[in-house]
Each structure stands twice: as structure tokens, then as C-alpha cells.
Amino acid sequence: MSAATKTAQQLRTIAAFWPGDPFRPNLQLKNLLDALADHPNLSAQAVKAARALQTNEFQKKYPLSDSTLKPASMPHYYTRLVEGFEKSARGIGRPWWKIFFGVW
Question: CA dist 73 to 10, 67, 68, 79, 80, Å?
């Protein structure tokens, strides 16, 4: 097995385990990674970068402080944002009256 075939196989493995995006079913990162595996200039650095993204190495290396995640002006902003994305992915929307009155 050549080095190019080995790196292509590693990238295909990363692509196979990449989670799907429920908000953009026609644009999936796993499809891009799978197509990149066939590129003739695929390098080991590209595979290493994809693996770093998959394992959240940068989030571990550069953790966000509590003051960044909970700004003084709106401490629950990111919590509500994540909750909204999760509910939206399940098809649960906010009632019209909560939107109208600005209630979370």
C-alpha cells in the first residue's frame, strides 16, 4: 500500500465518522472530505488537519474563558443559541407569542 493510498484511506475513515449537518442536507463536510481523498495532491498535513477538527484539538488547546461564553450583557446568549439549534434540528419551533413578546 503506497503512502498516497494510505492517506486517502485515513481521510475516508475520518469522513465516514463525520456527523451530518441537519440544517444543510445538500452541503455535507463528509462529502467534501470524501472527495478530497481522491485528490492527487492529498498530503498527510490535510489528513492531520481534518483529524484535529474532528477531535476538537483546537477547542482543547485554546479553551474559551467563562467571560467569553457568558458575556455580562447577555449571560445566557450562547446557552439559548445552542438550545435553539438543538430544538430546531428536532423540528421544535418557538411559539409565536414568545417570538412576539421576546420571551425565551
Answer: 44, 11, 11, 14, 14
